[in-house]
Amino acid sequence: MTPRPRELTPDRSVRHLFGAEMRRLREQAGMSLEDLAAVIRYSRSALHRYETAQAMIAPDLADKLDAAFGTDGLFAKLYALARNEVHPDKYRRRMELEARAVTIEEYSGHTVPGLAQTEAYARELLRQGNPESTAAEIDEKVAARMGRRSLLQGPARPYLSVILDEGVLRRTIGAPEVMRAQLEALLPLVDSPVGIIQVLPFKHGAHALLGGSLTLLTLDNGTSVAYEESITTGQLLEDAANVARHRRAYDVMRANALSPRETGALIASAMEALPT
Question: What's the pLDDT tens digit per position in 118-137?
């Protein structure tokens, strides 16, 4: 039995519109995905992901589709819009991509990233960020966040590189004992076989990612995506040019961050400064 095609929402997303038009014109031409793959020299699996809006459109696909269907630049115009569009399923898709990552690189300017949070620290952040939530709802959010930490366990765990702004260490989240436990939990990750943590000190001054956070995911197929986040919004970037621009900003920060030894000493100093 032929599986039901994934439902698209072309009225809400340019990426979905691209996929819907691709499917419509392919079916109108009486072509299967295998037929189209042979014409434009793409794999069937890749075309399926583009047609169902499950992956960012490849840069050369639009021109090939316009040539195959004789659509006079339609797909090129849609791609120009889709490449800068926030993914409509960005949070779910970010988690899916994170699970496939072989390397995770994060910059955080305000809090410890979720993958490195203790339960008490995460609970305090979620409680403050969701003041109208019930205790049961907070428990559910905490459990979900702690579940993400399983990514760092087992033989297939990704390599984790984290850059923290010094403010992450200096701002006390929760009671002093909560913050002390969180800082202590960072120390084994500062310089380990499976990860590294560095601090960008206050003295560095302004930088390209000031005011937000960034995650770079290198996937199991060698491609990279970026996820940038502000207070209430997040944007998943899969376009190669945008990802490269964010990687350059991350690399500059890493070059200016403290060494692992200096980072460990600064974390220990921040712990000692907490009231007892």
Answer: 999 999 999 998 889 888 88
Q: How confident is the model at residue 85 (pLDDT cuts 50, 70, 90)?
A: low
Cβ–Cβ < 8 Å for 126, 145: yes
CA atoms within 13 A on the CB side of 39: 17
Contacts 24+ apart (CB under 8 A), 10-17: 12/88, 13/53, 13/85, 13/88, 14/78, 14/81, 14/82, 14/85, 15/53, 15/56, 15/57, 15/82, 15/85, 15/87, 15/88, 16/53, 16/88, 17/78, 17/82
**Residue 184: Cβ within 10 Å count:** 13
Domains for the chain: give ranges and CATH numbers.
14-82 (1.10.260.40), 90-118+150-273 (3.30.870.10)
Count of CB atoms situated within 10 Å of the CB of 187: 15
Which two tokens mark 164? 């923290």
The answer on pLDDT for 170 being more than 50 is yes
Does pLDDT of 97 surpass 60? yes
Identity (one letter) of the amino acid at 203? K
Cβ proximity of 199 and 257 under 8 Å: yes
> In the block, which residue shows the tokens 């589709």?
65
